[in-house]
Fold this sequence. Notes:
The complex is a heterodimer of chains A (258) and B (274).
Chain A lengths: L1 H24 L2 H5 L2 H17 L9 H19 L1 H11 L1 H7 L4 H29 L8 H29 L2 H17 L12 H9 L1 H15 L5 H22 L6
Helix pairs in contact in A: 1-7, 3-4, 3-7, 4-7, 4-8, 4-11, 5-8, 7-8, 7-12, 8-9, 8-11, 8-12, 11-12
Chain B lengths: L10 E12 L2 E12 L3 E5 L6 H8 L7 E6 L2 E2 L4 H7 E4 L11 H11 L4 H14 L15 H13 L5 E5 L7 H18 L2 E6 L2 H7 L2 E6 L2 E6 L1 H7 L7 H9 L9 H14 L1
Parallel strand pairs in B: 3-8, 3-9, 6-7, 7-8
Antiparallel strand pairs in B: 1-2, 1-4, 4-5, 9-10
Helix pairs in contact in B: 3-4, 3-5, 5-6
Amino acid sequence: MSNYISQTITKAYVLAEMEARKLIHDPTELISRAVQPILWLGIFGEALSKVRAIPTQGFTYLQFITPGILTQSVTFVAIFYGLYIIMDRDTGILQKFLVTPTPRLALVWGKMISAGLRGLSQALIVFIFALILNVQLHLSLLSILGIIVIVMLGAAAFTGISMIIASIVKTRERFMGIGQVITLPLFFASNAIYPISIMPRWLQVVARVNPLSYMVDGLRTLMLSGTTTGVGFDIGILAGVALIISIISAWMYPKVVI
Amino acid sequence: MNYMGPPPETNIIEVKNLTKRFKKFTAVDDVTFAVKRGDIFACLGPNGAGKSTIIKMLITLLKPTSGQALIDGRDVIRDAGEVRHLIGYVPQMISVDGTLTAAENLMLFARLYDIPRAERQNRIKETLSFLKLEDHADSLVRTFSGGMIRKMEVGQAMLHRPKVLFLDEPTTGLDPIARQSVWEQLSKLRDNLGTTIFFSTHYMEEADGVSDQVAILNQGKIVAIGSVSELKAKTNKKEATLEEAFIFFTGNSLNETGNFREIRRMRQTEKRLS
């Protein structure tokens, strides 16, 4: 058992390192992914902050949605990760990895960490842009550390969910369809761009079971208030979801080759 | 690891009554055969004959509905973990990472296969020079030609010195020169390291030219098995070609049948490798 765990961690690290090398060889993808959060912050955020219709707990609206937009850009990258599984299945790369003695869980964690790395680069872009827009953020060593943990765990949870979906739908076309259908509802049924308190009752329930809300909540506390109240709880929820999802995913996604 | 293994003259692959059913469709139908250690073994048949399904079961990716398959005495289901250390696999489509360099692609698999740290660099160098790719160690693989990519894939799959190398349609989409050079490497691999090579193909000439044994598959069944000359002799025709032998055993010529996904995959492979 302990051998299995150490194998899993070693191999996940190997896979994640290679993903990082790929990003270094070709960072264009990171740049093109920067467009969306910039639009949300620069256009949507700027426009709505003039309206002042949304209660934002004493912060400016731009401050309020910056953690939300960060969450959105991290999870949207992750939620399409299942597509790579299908593409890798079509090219045979997936089969080749599954034939190696690598634990299935390591292959899942490798993908999760890779999504997390992309998420962190998104975070950097959001921070730089927020700085340009003169959004006041509270950054300390502790809050940065917390942000890294939350981004990695959030990316992991949604990557795992995405891999599970991929193993069920099995084709690119169906996956793209489902991906399009779930991303916006996930985003809107969360506290990313407005607080849960202004939602209708039924949506509040959805928002509270949506892991995205816990990501936003943790990031918002760290980035805006500079305290850590409740952040441990958010991290706990995200870690729990990521762990359970990764186990289900490790069991399910090898079936995509059949 | 005190398993002594069977003596070298025995069969390295033993398949007994192997069957795979998908709902009502029987992809592999009660297949029994053996592959001798160090042989080059061809699985010849049209698309959809069950070649890929047999390979998938042998490489531990697909559970048989019934029957048994052993690789070097280990059961592909019960001892899947051990079997994975013994085999290498080259899928039909491109499976190296174009966004990594040749050396990085090899390093990735060296680490996944637990090759000790002290040996890795040496093994990678050796492999690159074996493939005559040593000058391209630090180039991104997406700049490679089709033949070079195929060689890289063979290199990745042989790094850990597998006892059996499985290749699914290894030369689909390659021009004749690249095809020949890939097979030169594979024969050298067999001659130098005694690696057994198991491959599927729908090219008559390929099976004819390189293999010690050929199994002819049709609709999930092995309809004939033997050396190329044995198969030709059974047709009772003088100077029969393997094509004629194939028609003799299956009643069909080797037409492109197969399903949509397979055809699409083949076309894509051809497009990417050329």
